[in-house]
Amino acid sequence: MKQHLHSMDRNLMSLLVCIGELVIGVLLLLNPRGFTFAVFVALGVLLAALGIARLVGYWRTEAAVAARSGGLVTGLVFLLAGGFCIFRWQWFVMTFPILTVVYGVVTLLNGLNKLQCAVDLWRLGQRYWYLALTGAALTLLFGAVILANPFATMALLWKFVAIAFLVEAVLDLVTLLFSRR
To answer: Would you call 162 helix, strand, or coil by DSSP?
Structure first.
């Protein structure tokens, strides 16, 4: 029973990741600059809220305990980082080549994780393990292409990233559906 619940949790998480990849892919195709703005402003709001919460916690805590907590510094750092994300989100767009490398590395790591899943499905005797392997291979290929960065414009790169998200989401969804059989 416990194994079945763990499997359901894992399937639900995989489904949510697929839906997230689909939504991100569509939003990137429709309006990459607006998507970037929304992500960084949302991150900024979250960081600012964490900073305010940390600062309030610092001032509400007994002085001797607060002195050891570092709450003032972390609160101010979160608040400043949040403000930077909200008011200077364009900086992230300007530093996009560095972010592209980070995204490429994350995509490669995601591909390795998918490779692990495909091998696990194969070893468990699952019938459609090769679908997961196909998804892993494509994810690894996308990561390698992103790191090679053969794109002339950022708009083309955004479209490529959006399509990569959509293809990965569809393959992950197919793998999820067929691995349940």
So the answer is: helix
Look up the pTM and report it.
Answer: 0.57
29: number of Cβ within 10 Å: 16
C-alpha to C-alpha distance for 23 and 9, rounded to whole angstroms: 21
Give the CA dihedral 79, 81, 86, 90, nearest 10 degrees.
160
* Separation CA 129–CA 178 (nearest Å): 9
DSSP string, 89-156: THHHHHTHHHHHHHHHHHHHHHHHHHHHHHHHHHHTT-TTHHHHHHHHHHHHHHHHHHHH---SSHHH
pLDDT in tens, 36-55: 888 889 999 999 999 999 99
